[in-house]
Amino acid sequence: MLSGDCGQALPDVIGSAGNKAEWEACPGCLATGPANEKPCGQCCGVGWVYVRNRKQ
């Protein structure tokens, strides 16, 4: 199961997200991970956000 906001499961999403189109660089930390010396709140410190089904 894919995780959304810092470890919370995304509803109705089971599987992998290997497609590059399903991910975007995090705008909150500019894809670096940390923001203000702490993990970014938008991407949980990984630098990427899952966007499948959000772009429409």
Would you kindly provide a brief summary of this structure?
The chain contains no helices and four strands. It has 56 residues and is mainly beta. It has one domain.
Which tags fit this structure?
56 residues, mainly beta, two-stranded antiparallel sheet, elongated
Task: Describe the protein.
With 56 residues, the chain is an all-beta fold. The chain has one domain (1-56). Helices cover 0% and strands 18% of the residues. It is built from no helices and four strands. The chain has strands at residues 23-25, 34-35, 38-39, 48-50. The strands form two sheets. It has a two-stranded antiparallel sheet with strand order 1-4. The chain has a two-stranded antiparallel ribbon with strand order 2-3. A hairpin with a 2-residue loop joins strand 2 and strand 3. The chain starts with 22 loop residues before the first strand and ends in a 6-residue tail after the last strand. The model has no long low-confidence stretch (mean pLDDT 75).
